[in-house]
Amino acid sequence: MSRKPVVLITGASKGLGLAATKILLDEFGAIVVALSRSETVELTDLKQSHTGALLIIKGDVTDKDVVAHAVDSTVKTHGHLDALILNAGILTPLGKIAEVPLEGWKSHFDVNFFSLITAVQAALPHLRKSERGGRIVFVSSGSATKGTATMGPYNAGKAAMNSLCRTLGEEEPDVVSVALRPGTVDTPMQIQIRELGATAMTEKVHKYFMGLQTDSKLIKPEVSGYVMAALALEAPKSMSGQFVSYDSEDCAPFRK
User: Fold this and answer.
1) For residue 116, is it within any domain?
2) I need a labelling partner for 133 at 20 to 30 A (CA). Which of 52, 101, 179, 197 fits?
3) Is residue 4 among the annotated active site residues?
């Protein structure tokens, strides 16, 4: 059984999750269990170059049994669980609140919020016992505090995530919970915004996101991914329950 830090991360196959997974393996020497709907070429390559240090479990975070299996497999294989990074999330549906069907909201919350509860409940008994001190990193967004038009489900889901993090900070003294704003990162989600936004977003909002790319203002996944990884292993108790930005003074010790 390993005594290296063991981290379970969701949504690890691409973008921010993939960057954080690579950093945990390469720069922190951690053992990573990646829960993802798909196994990309990049994730497979990581597994081949980190034999024994990366376990990939394919499945949907909305499936309670899959999440329970991921946590159980982590502990059975490595003996313990030290951190949980909740990164899996979706953007859609886009549209005005008056127009998005209720079923769209429910589907969105199944992925972006209710899956968090499933993972937290499954992992907490093990995180409480971590010799390093258990940690949970919620990958949030600036949208949690905004009211960006046509992004109602996403805005609300991230706000609910932050609330969950705050409450865990009060309820779980032996586990550090942090919600991280990673900034606007150059990931497949941004590509989706640019592609769908022309028809689903207001012109003002779509123009804003298009401008981030054309003006080269998108953040590299490795920048925010490093903060995610470092917080998962080293976030202090004083941070528990907080919503912090990757570029804030609080996160300065966790930036490369």
Assistant:
1) yes
2) 52
3) no
Residue 108: inside a domain, yes or no? Answer: yes
Quick one: which of 21, 9, 159, 33 has its CA closest to 84? 9
Instruction: Report if pTM > 0.85.
Output: yes
- Choose, from 22, 115, 143, 158, the residue flagged as catalytic: 158
Find the catalytic residue in 154, 177, 226, 240.
Answer: 154
Please write the tens of the pLDDT for every residue from 192-221: 888 877 788 888 888 888 888 888 888 999
Does some domain include residue 193?
no
In a domain, 75, yes or no: yes
Choosing from 140, 141, 224, 240, the catalytic residue is 140
Amino acid (one-letter) located at 144: A
Among 32-36, 47-51, 171-175, 209-213, which stretch is predicted with the lowest mean pLDDT?
A: 209-213
